[in-house]
Amino acid sequence: GFLEAKSVSSGAVGAAAWEAGILLPSASSRVILTIDGSTGVSFEWASLSSSEQTALNTNSSGTADGLGSQRLDYLRGDGSKELVNGGTFRNRQTTKLGDIINSAPQYVSDEDFGYPDGLESVAYSSFVSSKASRAPMVYVGANDGMLHEFDGSTGVEKIAYVPTKVYSNLSKLTASTYSHRYFVDGTPTVGDAFFG
Hints:
Layout: E1 4-9, E2 12-19, E3 32-35, E4 40-42, H1 50-56, H2 68-76, E5 106-108, H3 124-130, E6 137-142, E7 146-151, E8 157-161, H4 167-170
Parallel strand pairs: 3-8
Antiparallel strand pairs: 1-2, 3-4, 5-6, 6-7, 7-8
């Protein structure tokens, strides 16, 4: 699981400026969101719906094991319950960021998608001007069950999102017998949308 930023000059690729997996914040300080069925919530045990908790309390064989809270901590990046540390969850390699296979990273900054000014009640050109100085971000899905947003300049994860549809398979990520599965593996779509 890695995402790197490299410079390109005259066709030559330079050294990595940053690698996102190495820069992941600690498990307790990461901003990870999900939805409890109707409302956006923090990806923390007390915030989850009962069905989400039940899914995490079930091991990869479909048996309830009561390890849901520990499993959630593992998914947030906590390695204390990995086999190498005397726990029961699978060991991850050098990074807690899941592998990125089919999701192409999307760079988002001050793009102008060329919408006409008269399309909405606010001129699109005004919106483009207002976002001219916003910080660049990179969005990518990973097979850790999350859509990630990274600071495009520094590579530090700003936020991650766990979709509801992956809960039934999240426990498989912790299994010591884990074989690769595809979770949030599609390329995000980027565009401008008018609300209000």
